[in-house]
Amino acid sequence: MTDNHTFLEVKDLKTRFHTPEGTVFAVNGVSFSLKEGETLAVVGESGCGKSVTMMSLLRLISIPPGKIECGEVIYRDKDLLKLTESEMEHIRGKEIAMIFQDPMTSLNPVLTVGRQLTETLRTHTPMNPDQCRERAITLLDWVGIPDAKNRLNDHPHQFSGGMRQRVMIAMALACTPSLLIADEPTTALDVTIQAQIIELVKRLKQDVGMAMIWITHDLGVVAGMADRVIVMYAGFIVEEALVDDLYDNPLHPYTMALLQALPRADRRREKNLKSIQGSPPNLLAEPVGCPFAPRCEFVKERCVRENPILTEITGGHKTACWVDVKTGGLR
Amino acid sequence: MNEPLVRVENLTKHFPIRSGVIIDRVVGAVRAVDGISFDIQKGETLGMVGESGCGKTTAGRTLLGLYPATSGRTLIDNLSVHESKGADLMKIRRKAQMIFQDPYASLNPRWTVNAIISEPLRVHKLMGSKSDRDDRVKELLELVGLNVRHMNRFPHEFSGGQRQRIGIARALASDPLFIVCDEPISALDVSIQAQVVNLLEKLQDQLGLTYLFVAHDLSMVRHICDRVAVMYLGVMVEIAERDDLYERPRHPYTQALLSAVPLPDPRKERARQRTILTGDVPSPINPPTGCRFHPRCPIAVDRCKAEVPEWKDVAPGHKVACHLVES
User: Fold this and answer.
1) Residues near B258 by Cβ (< 8 Å), separated by ≥ 6?
2) How far is the C-alpha of B228 from the C-alpha of A52, rounded, in Å?
3) Cβ neighbours of A79 (radius 10 Å)
4) Interface contact A115, partner B, CB < 8 A
5) Own/partner pairs for A306-310, CB < 8 Å, 24+ apart?
6) What's the CA gap between B195 and B211, in Å, rounded?
């Protein structure tokens, strides 16, 4: 899938955490790529490795206990995993920015919003303090914070949850990055505020022309904004597809079950929700077979023995499954 | 119509705001719930939705008597929750139970599952002997789909979904008629949510339970509830049968709320016209005058600022509080 527009390519990334309880196999060989201007959604439940993958590629995981065992993260011909810490600092915040789930814990409560907003600018640009201030006002205005000029000296607790998330977005966009990684940015917010933030991000993305990776567990949010989707389970990518293909024609039993487990606000109730039995696996052991096998309704003898690798089935639609979910037999 | 199992009349809960170090005085009130009235029929599931801070959790807790009410009353099975004492109060406590949002915080970490689930049996002296209680705990564990051999384990040995099952078993121990489910699934993963919802529905069928289902997930509420009430800033703005509410929402807030719900359908999402509300929910300490929704309402007129809208019927079983909705 490598072509001129691909600017980020992750190959066989493995991240583990060496804890007193044992080794946590958090990310087990993840590969994907991203094109300029594309929105990629990474979907999965808690502990599936979606956040750790993104933290690893920005080298934000704490080492120890974490360790990136192997892999490459090629960003515009540079392997981010091989850069020195100071080279990495030129990438983070400037070329690749990240926003987090909880805007209260990711903003510093004792510094003013203006001070935090200008930090990226002071670090990455030659602007003087007055220019930084001007730029900060423009940014706050841009993300829809009323009376931006006077709010620069306010502290985070003086903002509501939705407004704090807007501040976070303004900080991330300060240097017009070419990639924005958003880790569950609307999960802590109410639906009406979530709708505001999603509209805002879509608008800003068009203004800046940046690519985006949107980490979420909400398949509704994904449908509304992604171009392409990656589904993760137990540290593996189990399915990858264009957004329409994934919803029309899920190829992995996990994706299929997730979609069937969702109630719909736009339809009358027809039947009971389909539930997935059991719970996600403990990541303290490297799985032998397919990690979803114990919960899978299509499970075959081969699934327990051998872990399937992510394979392309039709144009750009990949799945890691031995079984053809349409027939129920082996592929 | 049948006699309702739960009747809530003009229920109000204000939390006082205190100030002053030496002379402690009340300087204001958080008007968390400000006069709500509704009935719940036997065997029914009523959904209560709204955004954070709208008072839905406080409403659930106050109507069970977990908070004293500022005014108004609740009748559960014809007993007044806030006025009853002694044996009557114990009876209400036994017949009305609660399932909490956070399965990590609502179970005592130092108690075994057996001790947690058998507490209501001990408090209400429902089973004389230890062995009877153990049998009942085993029966309850089986009912909620947990392994009976795990009754001597501690909460930390269970996953989130399993803990929520323990919370459900505890709520069922005293044979209740009515359960307030306060966001019982919002802390759980998608694949586990369906398990817990299906369990709650199975139990309702088997035991004839009545639920008040407090939630912010509007898709799940449509799935599980028979009727749905929408709250905004401590007041109820709309109540209707499930499909009536989702297909013909009348209040502008309900309309905006429903249009903000993301749908797992890319084509529909692209075609959708959203009503995006501006601003945030105002503070319940000084709620706006007139209709509380008027500062964010896309169709508000002058009258909305001045007059509190009447809580009126617009169709059979469909009530709305809005000046601009014709009855």
Assistant:
1) A265, B218, B246, B249
2) 39
3) 13
4) no
5) A307/A236, A310/A31, A310/A236, A310/A237, A310/A238, A310/A240
6) 17
Would you put residue B306 in left (φ > 0), alpha (ψ -120 to 50) or beta?
alpha
For chain A, list the strands marked E by DSSP.
6-19, 22-35, 39-43, 66-75, 78-79, 96-99, 179-183, 211-216, 228-233, 236-242, 311-314, 317-319
Dist CA A210 CA B159 (whole Å): 39
CA dihedral B155, B156, B162, B167 (to 10 degrees): 30
Q: How far apart are CA B67 and CA B11, in angstroms?
A: 12
Tokens of A190: 């109410």
Token readout for B292 is: 């509380």
Chain A stretch 30-89, residues whose beta carbon is closer than 8 A to a beta carbon of chain B? 45-46
How far is the CA of A327 from the CAs of A298, A323, B90, in angstroms?
10, 8, 57
Asked if the interface predicted TM-score (ipTM) of this complex is over 0.90, the answer is no
> Tens digits of per-residue pLDDT, B309-320?
999 999 999 999
Closest residue to A219, CB basis, from B223, B259, B264: B264
Chain segment A275-291, per-residue pLDDT in tens: 888 888 888 888 889 99
A174, A167 Cβ separation under 8 angstroms: no
B chain contacts of residue A191, beta-carbon cutoff 8 Å: 51, 216, 218, 257, 260-262
- The phi and psi torsions of A70 (rounded to 5 degrees) equal -160, 175
Do B276 and A273 lie within an 8 Å CB cutoff? no
- pLDDT per residue over B71-80, tens digit each? 999 999 999 9
**B8 phi and psi angles, rounded to 5 deg:** -110, 125
Contact yes or no for B262 and A224 at CB 8 A = yes
In this structure, are residues A121 and A138 in contact, taking their beta carbons and an 8 Å threshold? no
Probe site for chain A from B200, B221, B265, B293 (most A CB atoms < 10 A): B265
Bridge partners of A72, per DSSP, are A11
pLDDT digits (tens, 9 = 90+) for B143-179: 998 988 899 999 998 888 899 999 999 999 999 999 9
The reply to whether residue A273 touches residue B198, judged by beta carbons under 8 angstroms, is yes
Residue B161 burial by Cβ neighbours in a 10 Å radius (0-12, 13-18, 19+):
buried
Does residue A107 contact residue A93 with C-beta atoms inside 8 Å? no
Q: Where are the beta strands (DSSP E) in chain B?
A: 6-19, 25-40, 45-49, 71-76, 79-80, 96-99, 178-182, 210-215, 227-232, 235-241, 311-315, 318-321
Beta-sheet strand order (sheet of B79-80): B25-40, B6-19, B71-76, B79-80
Which residues 6+ apart lie within 8 Å of B61 measured at CB?
B67, B98, B180, B182
Listed in sequence order, the residues at least 6 apart from B11 whose beta carbon sits closer than 8 Å to its beta carbon are B33, B35, B36, B37, B59, B62, B63, B69, B71, B72, B73, B74
Tokens of B16: 């006082």
Pair A232, A53: CB distance under 8 Å: yes
Give the helix/strand (H/E) hosting A166.
helix A161-173
Hey, which residues does A237 pair with through a beta bridge?
A: A232
The number of residues in chain A equals 331
